[in-house]
Design a protein that fits this description.
Layout (H helix, E strand, L loop, with lengths): L1 H23 L2 E7 L4 H18 L3 E7 L4 H13 L4 E5 L1 H10 L5 E6 L2 H4 L15 E5 L4 H11 L5 E7 L3 H16 L3 E7 L5 H11 L2 E4 L3 H5 L1 H11 L3 E3 L2 H7 L2 E4 L2 H16 L17 E4 L1 H7 L8 E2 L4
Parallel strand pairs: 1-2, 1-3, 3-4, 4-5, 6-7, 6-8, 8-9, 9-10, 11-12
Antiparallel strand pairs: 10-11
C-alpha cells in the first residue's frame, strides 16, 4: 500500500510539473508583411490582438515589413527560420511564397491571400480546400460576381471597363480574369491594363482612362500602396474606379464590395492559437474566408463625379 501511495504521489507531482511547464510555455511568432498600407496593417493588428487576448504575455511578435520587395520578404523569412520561431505569419502573397521557400517544417499561417492554390501553384484539380503543406490561413477574396454587379448597378450605361492590376501578383491576374467573365456576361467590353510596378502605374492608368468608361482595381498590394498615383490620373479625367477592397476605394475609388481585413487577421490569430496550444495540424486546416461582405462608397469622390449612390452602401469614413 505504501508503494502504491508513493507511486500515486510521484505521478501527481509529475503531472503538476507538466501542467506548470505548459502554463509557463511561451511562443515566438515572426510576422513578415509585404508592405505597409491600411488593409495589410489591419490584418496584422487583428492577428496580434487575437493572440494577445488568448495568450497574454506568453506570446512575442517579431514584426518586419519588406517595403514591397519580394527579395526582402525572403531575407526576413530566412531570418525567422534561423531564429527558430514557433510560427510564421505571412501577410500577402509574396510574403507567403518567401516563407514557404524558407521552411517546410515551421507552421506558416497567411492572411490577405486571395486564392491559395494560385499563390502556391497548386493545380486547381488537386485543390482540396487545404494545402497539405505546412501552410494554412485566411483569404481576402470577396465575391467577384457581386463586384461586377456593383459596376452594373452604378454604371449601367457604361460600355468599356478597364481592369488595372500588377502583373507581378498572380492573385491580381486571377481576379481581373474572373471578373472580366462576369462583366462580359453583363454586356461590358473589358480590357486588361497590367503594370509592372509603381513606376509605370501612372502611364498605365492613363491608358486605361483613355480607353474605358469605368476602371476596376482588384485587391492589389501595389495599387493599394499607390492610390494617390491613381487618383491624380483619374480625377482630372472624371473616371470612376470600382475597387476590390475598402483601402483602395478610400484612396482613389468610388465604390467597393469589401471585407474586414481586421476580421480575417483576427481569425488567423485564432488559427495560430489552435496550432500552438492545441496541436492542430496546419496541413489539413481549411482555408478560412471573411464572414461577411459590405458595400461601401467614397463620399468625396462620389461628389466629385456627381454620382448619387443608391441605398445599401456604407460611407467610408475619412481618416
Amino acid at each position: 500500500m505504501k508503494k502504491i501511495l508513493a507511486l500515486a504521489m510521484a505521478l501527481c507531482m509529475l503531472l503538476g510539473c507538466t501542467a506548470a511547464l505548459a502554463e509557463d510555455e511561451t511562443y515566438s511568432i515572426g510576422i513578415v508583411q509585404l508592405v505597409q498600407h491600411p488593409a495589410l496593417d489591419l490584418a496584422t493588428k487583428g492577428f496580434q490582438d487575437a493572440l494577445t487576448e488568448l495568450l497574454g504575455d506568453k506570446v512575442t511578435f517579431d514584426l518586419q515589413n519588406a517595403s514591397g520587395d519580394a527579395a526582402t520578404c525572403a531575407t526576413i523569412a530566412n531570418g525567422f527560420v534561423s531564429a527558430d520561431v514557433d510560427l510564421i505569419m505571412a501577410n500577402a502573397t509574396p510574403a507567403l511564397q518567401a516563407a514557404v521557400a524558407a521552411t517546410a517544417d515551421i507552421p506558416i499561417l497567411a492572411t490577405s491571400i486571395t486564392v491559395y492554390d494560385v499563390a502556391l501553384d497548386i493545380p486547381a484539380d488537386e485543390w482540396k480546400g487545404y494545402t497539405e503543406l505546412n501552410v494554412s490561413g485566411t483569404s481576402d477574396l470577396a465575391p467577384l460576381d457581386e463586384q461586377a454587379a456593383i459596376i452594373k448597378e452604378l454604371f449601367p450605361d457604361a460600355k468599356n471597363v478597364g481592369l488595372i492590376y500588377c502583373s507581378a501578383e498572380p492573385n491580381s491576374l486571377y481576379q481581373v480574369t474572373t471578373i472580366a467573365g462576369y462583366l462580359n456576361e453583363l454586356g461590358y467590353e473589358t480590357t486588361m491594363f497590367p503594370f509592372a510596378d509603381s513606376n509605370d502605374l501612372a502611364s498605365v492608368t492613363q491608358s486605361a482612362c483613355d480607353a474605358s468608361d469605368v476602371l476596376y482595381i482588384p485587391t492589389d498590394n501595389t495599387a493599394a500602396s499607390y492610390t494617390e498615383t491613381v487618383y491624380n490620373v483619374v480625377q482630372p479625367m472624371n473616371k470612376p474606379v470600382v475597387t476590390g477592397e475598402e483601402g483602395i476605394c478610400a484612396g482613389c475609388g468610388v465604390a467597393t464590395l469589401t471585407i474586414s481585413y481586421y476580421d480575417i487577421g483576427y481569425a488567423t490569430g485564432k488559427m495560430a492559437y489552435d496550432i500552438l496550444v492545441n496541436g492542430a495540424d496546419v496541413s489539413t486546416m481549411p482555408i478560412q474566408f471573411a464572414p461577411q461582405f459590405v458595400k461601401k462608397y467614397n463620399p468625396t469622390i462620389a461628389a466629385e463625379l456627381g454620382l448619387t449612390i443608391s441605398e445599401g452602401y456604407e460611407a467610408i469614413e475619412a481618416e
